[in-house]
Amino acid sequence: DGHSMDATLQNGERLIINKMVYDFHSPQKGDIIVFHANPTQDYVKRVIAVGGDLVQEKEDILYINGQAVQEPYLDKEKKLYPLKDKSYTSDFGPITIPNGKIFVLGDNRPVSNDSRYIGPVDVKQVVGRADFSLWPINTFHKLN
Fold first, then answer.
1. Residue 28 pLDDT > 70, yes or no?
2. Section 76-96 average pLDDT
3. pTM of the full predicted structure?
4. I need a surface site. Which of 24, 45, 58, 111 has the fewest CB within 10 A?
């Protein structure tokens, strides 16, 4: 539910979640994951940084360990962003991500409640990786 992952995911889409993948390796940068945000809600977000990484956003550019990162999955939503005089992603950081944690952001940054507000997420909270959007059938697509 919600719009925090627009345009990658739309409100009401149904996802196929791979719950076993993280039995073999930790979440990777770029993965779209489902995690327990609190005892009653699961969130869907994109992994931006992992334990040991230094993450920062400055003037709408994401930096991981001092290197600018391309985020093509934001292009469509950025074009639709109505506040052209404001940054799509507000500045934050630098933040060093502790080991065993991940930093997650929604693709629709202006409305996403993500690690900028809730802090880094413990990998133990991760339910799995969202691999496919299954429903509605006309939106079926591979995510990761």
1. yes
2. 85
3. 0.89
4. 24
